[in-house]
Protein: 5-amino-6-(5-phosphoribosylamino)uracil reductase
Amino acid sequence: MAMAALSFRLCSSPLICRATLDHHATDASFIRRAADLSEMSAGLTSPHPNFGCVIATPSGKVAGEGYLYAQGTKPAEALAVEAAGEFCRGSTAYLNMEPGDCHGDHTAVSALVQAGVGRVVVGIRHPLQHLRGAAIREMRSHGIEVNVLGEDVQSKVLEDARKCCLLVNAPLIHRACSRVPFSLLKYAMTLDGKIAASSGHAAWISSKLSRTRVFELRGRSDAVIVGGNTVRQDDPRLTARHGQGHTPTRIVMSQSLDLPEKANLWDVSEVSTIVATQRGARKSYQKFLASKGVEVVEFDMLNPREVMEYFHLRGYLSILWECGGTLAASAIASGVIHKVVAFIAPKIIGGSKAPSPVGELGMVEMTQALNLIDVCYEQVGPDMLVSGFLQPVPDLLPVIPSEDATFEIDPSVNPFESSIIFFYKTWDLYGSFSNFSPHPIRMPFGDDYRTWSSVEHYYQVPHNSPFNDVKIEVMYMALKCKFSTYPHLKTMLLSTAGSVLVEASPHDLFWGGGREGEGLNYLGRLLMQLRSEYLGESSVSAENTSLAL
Ligand SMILES: Nc1nc(O)c(N)c(N[C@@H]2O[C@H](COP(=O)(O)O)[C@@H](O)[C@H]2O)n1
Structure:
């Protein structure tokens, strides 16, 4: 009792609140540093995330730092531990992102554990669902105090630091949630909004300094994409020539393959080029490109979304669009562009026929304009660099939309720490949870009752409604009937108490959790809700029994 009163007094002391705020400010600044470090190798770690680690002594001094330099190199945490040496014992390690584990390699976690780090502050959990939470659990199991921003510790300053962590790995987070690579549209335009003169001449609008920044952007991307017009007009090289970073693949999107025979992009001696085209387009020209070593990929429907889905499957993480206005408009309209970077030069070229960076989007009123998010302004030499996101960096926990929502569904579940039970095919371990499992149910129908061979049969006819709340209600009633009819299923459901249930459907983003956790998982949520209802019933009946005794 005395202890509780004392701790209350201490917490309400203004001195302690100031101390807590200072503590948060220290944590936030080290997390920001970890995020900055992680960004130093952007583009080189792909398809892995950018990892940075700072080890700080209890007195708040940096003892060691590290960042993942490239794919397959020593983890940031191991480098920081090496640098900090004996100062690791009892120190705090700051990680911009929870470590993953590549093919069962736990080096990052082991390094922190073996070095005797006492506390770890994590900016964000790993965005890939199969890795999310694993390293955090592992560190906690070794007695390390782990604080995840936004979960265990919250404040404005920490929220800002967390945002830096999201931004630094935005490509991976976007890719995980949208199943297309992260796409950045870059253009350079004059003050009067032209990307070339009426003649098509564009060399150069932006300054040398700005163009070097573009080389850096290229160096951070897996590929640079342009359309046929840009190849015909500019004959670009699209290489990163700032002296470091890797060189991205060049991609050309061309419907007709009406392209020149001589072009810088057909020289693949140092970097490869892939031409994406319409199936059957100019076969003889395709042969010519192949003879030059250029890969040609044919699409049944050549459009930005199909092309991006294809490159997502090939493992591309981030793509830089350096195309003209027509392709840029089509890419924006199809929702594949996540971020825009515009270099604005203090020049006026005029010309009613001079092209602009984004073509027709079909908008007629200013209210329809797309508003960028997290806009940044920076002066680069004489030019102004304006950048911002067209789509917000997605929620990292879409399967469980929010902590509050999850508690509402099932208070026994801790949304951040629970294990996840996946089910999908009816023959899987928990396959009987599926709405397709062959468990007939008897439900009211009109003035009578009828039997349906599965929950799905009942759901499909005749109640199926486009309105989500009706759909959800119908599914819930059918599931309730199934689990009440079959006691062994109810027992099985109750045995999962405390775990998050996720229907692992890669296709159904409403009922299922999606391929990488991007789905809404309504089937899983309903099952957790039902489980919670049953758990409530059994605790009430247990209470009644004990009262009766
Ligand atoms: N940053 C920038 N400033 C300008 O003034 C430009 N005209 C462009 N154009 C883009 O860069 C491509 C040429 O690239 P290489 O130098 O040949 O590698 C050109 O095709 C446009 O996409 N960019």
Q: What stands out?
A: The pocket of LIKH6CAM is lined by residues 188, 202-206, 210-211, 214, 226, 230, 234, 236-239, 322, 343 (CB under 6 Å).
